[in-house]
Amino acid sequence: MEYENGDGPNLDGLSDLQALQIIGLLVDQASNEGNPTLVDHALALADQLQDRDLMPEQLTLLDYFRANAWACRYQQRHANRQTAWEFDQPEISQQLLLLRHAAQGPGFASLAPMRQCQILTNLGNQLDTLGRFIEARACWNAAIEIDANFWMARANRARALMFYAEALYDGGHRCVFANHAYRELTEAVALIAHHPHLGDPHLSENFSTSAEAIARHFDLDAIAKSYRPNDGSLGRSEDERAYRRWCLSNTLFLNPLNDVDKAPIAARDILSLPDFKTPIGEPPVVIGMFNELKQAFASARWLLWEGMRVGNVHFSDRGVVLLNTLDYPSYGLAVEKLKMAFRLSYSLFDKIAYFLNYYLQLGQPEHKVFFRSIWHERNGKVLRDRISGSKNWPLRGLYWLSKDLFEEGMKDSSDPDAREIAVLRNHLEHRYLKIKEYSLPTNPQNSPFHDPVAYTIPRIDFERKALRLLQLARSAVIYLSLAMHHEERGRDRGGFAMLMHLDTWRDSWKR
Question: Is the entire prediction scored with pTM above 0.90?
C-alpha cells in the first residue's frame, strides 16, 4: 500500500475499522521499508484515532499497532549495535507500555487467539531484550497456553533460553538449558511446516541453524541420559511436599532449573554467588549479604504459604478482643503472616541495592542506598557511568525491574499485581491498610460502614499481589547473582590468586 501524506495525516471519512486497517498497513510498510516517515505518519494517525470513542477491542489493536511502530523506530535507531547496550531504551519503554495496555485491557479477551499470542510474544521479546528474561518466559508461556501451535513464542522462548544459559555460572544448568532449547527449536521448526500462517515461515531456516549450533556445542544425548528431573525427595511430610509443590508450580525456588522444570530436581534453593576474587585478608562480605537475601526470601515464601492456607484459629489469637466494624475485615495470625511475607519480600530490593553499592563501589552514602535510586547520580536523572557503560544483561534486568516498581510512568502500566505494590507497602508500613475477607459492593462510599481512611483490598487480591512481589524478588536475586558473574568474568585483577573454600551451613544449625 502507498500512503500519500498530502497536507498531513487525516482519517476524515473513514470508519474506525478502516482507520485501524490503514494504520496497521502503514506500520507493516514502514517496517518492510525501514521508512521513518511512514512510522511518524502511522503514529500521528493513531493519535487521531485515539480521540474517537473506540470499542475495547479496537483500543487494544491500536495499542498493538502503536507498539509495532515504536519497534520500527527501535530498529532504525539501533542500526548502530553499540546503542543496543544503552541501559535506557525509550523505544522499548514505549513498546512495554503499549503492549501491557493491550494485554491487560478489556478488549484483549475479544481478540482472535493469534493476535493475543502476537501481543504476548512481543511483550516477552521486549522484556528479554531489557534483561528481564525470567518475566519474559512468563509471557511466552502464556502465549503457548493460548495456542500450543504458536511457534513464534516457542522459538523465541528457546533462543532466549540460550542467552539465559550463557549468563549462568553453573555448567550443569547450562547443559540442561541447552537441551531444553534444542528440543523447543526443533519443535518450532516442525510446527512451521503445519502452521506457516502463524508467523514468517522463512524464519524456519534461522531456527534450524540455531538448533544445529546447540547440537554442535553440547552432547545432547549425554545430557538427556544424565538428567533425571524426578530424582530427589520433595520432603519428609505431606505438608512439606505440598509446600514444595506449591513453590515449584509458582516458580519460587532460587534455582534457575525451576524456570524450565517443575520437577523435584528444581525444588532446592541452590542458587549461590559465582566464583569471585577479593584481596587476601578481606572477609567474605558479599557471601554474608547474599546469605541474608536468600534466608529472608525463603522465610517470606514460607510465611506467604502459611498465610494463604485456610486452617483453624491459632491459639495466639484467642482472647485478643477486636470489635466488629461490619465491613468484613480480615484478622488473625494468618493475615499477619501475609503482611510479613509482603514486608520481607519488599525489603529485599533495598538490600540488593546495598549489595550493589558495596560490590560495584558506587560510592552512594549508606543512608541513601535504595533500589529506586542506586542507579543514578545524586541529581536522580543521570545514570551512573559505572552502570550505563556496562554490557551486563542481568544488571540491566535489575535496572528495568526497579522502573516497574518505582517509576511512575512505568508503574502505571505495569502488570496488574505489580502496579499497586509500592502503594500497598506505604500503607502497610506507615498508614492504614485494611484487608477484607470479601470484595466490597459497588459504590462502597455510600455504605455507612465505608472506611474513608483505610486503603482497602480484598484478601484474595492481597494474596495475589504478595505472590507477585515474591516472584519479582526471586527474579531480582537471580539477576543479582548472574550480574555478579558477568562482572567477575570481565575483571582482571592480576597477581597471585589462592583458592578459598567455604563449607555450606548445615540445615541442622538453622535454629
Answer: yes
